[in-house]
UniProtKB/TrEMBL annotation:
Classification of source organism: Bacteria, Pseudomonadati, Pseudomonadota, Betaproteobacteria, Burkholderiales
Domain EAL span(s) in chain numbering: 1-254
Protein name: Diguanylate cyclase (GGDEF)-like protein
Domain of life: Bacteria
Shown segment, full-protein numbering: 756 to 1009 of 1017
Length: 254
């Protein structure tokens, strides 16, 4: 079977799982998680996105797959809603540009919210700068419609794409994610450190929340906090993990 055929089957028979990676404040409080897809393949074991995302993008299967991710994340939010501490968590979902560009994207998201009953204010959609390369008007209209439902937005991998800063102010953005490429240069490359400071400063001036990803060391965390980035995500706080392990870590205080 080709990977494409196998992916069709995977979507039809629910072979995907979400792993959760925590996002932690300078006060060690977990405020949310990013959900990352994995494929529980019937013979090859647990596959990482690297092994199937490109094929999913090229074949358009990223669209039903992305919808599955969104629905699974919203179902989880609704399961957490009555819980004394878990109800505070936000979930960040990666949205592919191809998925976002579909005419019915806003409609589909709205339907998922209705089906699951999830609180839209706990849902964060991670977009990439590629959405600012073309069809900017479409991006603005859709983001405003979704923001109107109460959904929040994060610009993923900030500074690594080709986006135009002039469009930044026209989007209803809530958050910027400092890419791990920058974070991994902390302590190694003074010029990159200055770029990070500039990104954080810009985010603060625009009143955007800032999250750093790929944080692996205390040195990186200290630098980020010192320069005003108070939320971090990365292996030093935990790998992306199945929901049960994530919940256990939450209950044991990280
Ligand atoms: O942990 P990790 O190897 O999961 O992720 C690798 C890449 O796959 C990242 O760039 C991430 O954005 C992407 N990815 C992970 N999960 C999803 C998903 O649910 N949807 C989309 N579109 N991309 C994802
Ligand atoms: O969506 P995005 O491309 O930002 O996906 C995040 C990717 O970074 C995922 O593949 C995730 O597994 C990975 N990741 C998360 N934390 C760390 C980290 O501390 N170090 C490294 N190298 N990768 C990380
Ligand atoms: Na992401
Ligand atoms: Mn990223």
């Amino acid at each position: 079977a080709t990977l494409e055929n196998e992916l069709h089957a995977a979507i039809a028979s629910d072979q995907f799982v979400l792993h959760y990676q925590s996002q932690v404040t300078a006060d060690d409080e977990v405020v949310g998680a990013e959900v990352l897809i994995r494929w529980q393949h019937p013979t090859r074991g647990l596959l990482q996105p690297m092994e199937f995302i490109d094929v999913a993008e090229d074949t358009g299967l990223i669209i039903p797959m992305g919808l599955w991710v969104l629905e699974a994340a919203c179902r989880q939010l609704q399961l957490w809603a009555p819980h004394p501490s878990l109800h505070r968590l936000t979930l960040a979902v990666n949205v592919s540009a191809r998925q976002f560009r579909k005419d019915d994207f806003v409609d589909q998201v709205q339907k998922v919210l209705v089906r699951t009953g999830a609180n839209p204010s706990k849902l964060k959609l991670e977009l990439t700068e590629s959405l600012l390369q073309d069809k900017v008007a479409d991006t603005i209209v859709k983001m405003n419609a979704l923001a109107g439902l109460g959904i929040r937005f994060s610009m993923d991998d900030f500074g690594t794409g080709y986006s135009s800063l002039s469009y930044m102010t026209q989007l209803p953005l809530d958050q910027i994610k400092v890419d791990k490429f920058f974070v991994h240069s902390i302590g190694l490359n003074p010029k990159v450190e200055l770029i990070i400071q500039t990104i954080i400063g810009m985010a603060r001036n625009l009143d955007l929340e800032i999250v750093a990803e790929g944080v692996e060391t205390q040195g990186q965390r200290s630098f980020l906090e010192k320069h005003g980035c108070r939320i971090c995500q990365g292996y030093m706080f935990g790998r992306p993990q199945p929901v049960a392990a994530f919940e256990r870590a939450m209950k044991s205080g990280l």
